[in-house]
Amino acid sequence: MKINYKTFLFTITSYTLVIVYMLSFSFRFPLIGIEVERVHNDWIIKSFIYPEWADLNKVERGNIILEVDNKAIEARNDSMQYSIRSANSILLKDTLGNLRTIQINYSELPNQFLHVFIIPLVYFLINLAISIYLYTYKRTSFQSLNIFILYILTVSLTYSSVGASTQMDRLGMFIMSNGIILSLILLIHFLSNYLKSLNINLTFKVNKRFLYGILCTICLLTLFEMFNPVIIPFNTLLILVTFCVLILCAIFMLGISYIRYRKQQLLLLFLCLIVPFLPFVLLYILPMLLFNHFIVSSSVCALFLLFIPISLLLVNLPERLFDLDYQITKIRYYSLFSLTLAGLICAGIFSMMHIDLIDLLYIFLFVFILLVVALYFKEKMDYANRKLLYSPKGDYIHVVHKTIERIIKVTTVEELLDRFTEELSQQLAVSDVNIYIHSIVDGTVIKNDLPSAPVFNSNTIEKLRLGEIKKIGDLYIGCLHETLDQKYILTIEDKGKIYLKREELLCLELLIIYISNFIENTHLVEDLFNQLDSVQKLGKQYPSWLRKFVWIKLEDEKYQLAQELHDTILQEQIHLIREIDMIQDKRIPTEIQQLIQQQREYLVELNHQLRYYCEKLKPPLLEMQGLQAALDRLFAEIDQRADFSTIFEIEDIAVENAEIPLLIYRTVQELLNNAIKHSQATYVKIQLISTLNGFELVYFDNGVGCDLSENEQKNSMGLQGIKERIYAYNGFIQIESAPDEGMRVHIKIEEGNSYD
Fold first, then answer.
1. Is 362 a domain residue?
2. 503 lies in the same domain as 568
3. With 90 as the cut, is the pLDDT of residue 15 above it?
4. Has this prediction a pTM greater than 0.85?
5. Confidence of residue 16 (pLDDT cuts 50, 70, 90)
6. Which of 465, 422, 423, 462 lies closest to 442, judged by CA?
7. Chain centre to alpha carbon of residue 86
8. Closest CA to 194 of 266, 109, 104, 292
9. What range does the domain containing 669 cover?
10. 74 in a structural domain
């Protein structure tokens, strides 16, 4: 079901308010944990949860507690033991009879403040950010978004209530008892919907009404135990058993689905959403059920829940959440590396400092998470700064990358060789880099299209293989490219003696392989243009391979469109069908009417999307009502989308070629889209003028403009596409622009004329 803005805002606000209350309660009342027993109407200290705090404040076993927060201890008359869970101050009498008032501050309980306030707060903020991100950017593509958002927010709420629950706050106890069950029910609900969207048929069907019925039962028992503490042990046992059963159910769903369908996204779901709960089950719940004593406290086990938002962030929500095998491998590799290193670090710390195992576990978790995040961060930084990460002098991969980047856009072999020699001379810091063409047939040598005296022995050249580099005296020579009758010979020399290191030679050999391929491909492109020019001049039919290429490209476009429609409109329709099926099960008329209205709005939105795709493929008015009507419709749409005003003067165009109106429409469309994306203009003016045998199109905007030389180097797809479209019809195009001076485009096409 699609979640609307008001519902989302209400959900976020409600969870935030309750979590703020839970955290504020934990902040106002530190958990002190003093166990006392009644001896002759005096409450004597028996033990401490935090012995470090007791040592710091010189509180000892045997001291008498007189007041807690300026009040006497309130316990039943027949009670012999009592636990002081939270307090801001205590009044005690020591063994010498001295009275002391001790203020309890979180500064003396740093670990507790971290566990019950800082970590839950950070955890909630992360999950809140994820929820807002998903709703803002992914609400049309993320399956069962509403269930997933409720799931991560409920986990945050449950985690935030740990402190208040430990201090016996009734709301905190209620949320803690029911939140852990609700979290897993929402998780199973989400997994059920998601597996259904993958067309995975479960061997058993999850009865959601039964699951939520169990939750309601536990809620009622939790409320009832506040008035009748006798059922507390039973309800606690029920909650723990239910939790284990739900975890096993989720594991079974994903496990069976993965075994049957082998979809890697299921494994990723298991790692991100199931594994963080396992320490709570294995180290706390099962030991409590079997031995009535936990191995690790619930607050420590809850730390593993941090892996839910962290793992989701690491796989780049949610584009890579469910479909990249690469992410699975990377998580496994980074985790194994971080696990080993964190274990070695903690083993060293333990051997040198002999700290408590619980504190060592904290350190291990912190180091492990820090290492995983650092590895991901390093990967991103290395990629972002790969051109600046190392100095060019020692970074030979940088040399290869930079050289290829500079020469990859050339269109002729001559320009390619000139650019290559310039780059090589700069990168290797040598004075002379030359390329000779050696004829295998007659042994002649050509340099820069002119005959040249040989600077090397012909026998040496004939034995030189492609990519091989030899040092002859103070000269390095290599075979750059080879054909049936020619060899391109590269020579490198310097005014002084030259010596290339082994790494530089390997880098040079790699570059030669690239350049040889570039030369081959550039020759093919030149031959292709020559062939097409000759075909056009002779008026012959285009070759069969070109028609085949056009047909293949047309099929590719059809496939892309089909895929886009499948991923958007078709998926939305499938979702809509399922929603309509659910409406059939409703019994309340008002609810049915509300759902029908929502689905109607959904259908209208789908209709707009489909209409957009159809108009994108073929302007609807162009064929039926002509160019003028199609452009008027286009200008009206642009007025709704753009921040600038549009001034247009359109004349009727009379041409014999039926393709010209479509050419004009696509050109104007591309110019206006370019203006919306880049111009930042306040107005755009378009003139379409009819000429004797064609038309002139003039575009002008008062926007930020651009440096055309830089724009050409960036190979702007918008302007480049317009140029190619105009040149295909032997047209003339002139683009004038400069920074802060707007842009002017003048296009002219005359049928039967050429502007080459």
1. no
2. no
3. yes
4. no
5. very high
6. 462
7. 43
8. 266
9. 623-750
10. yes
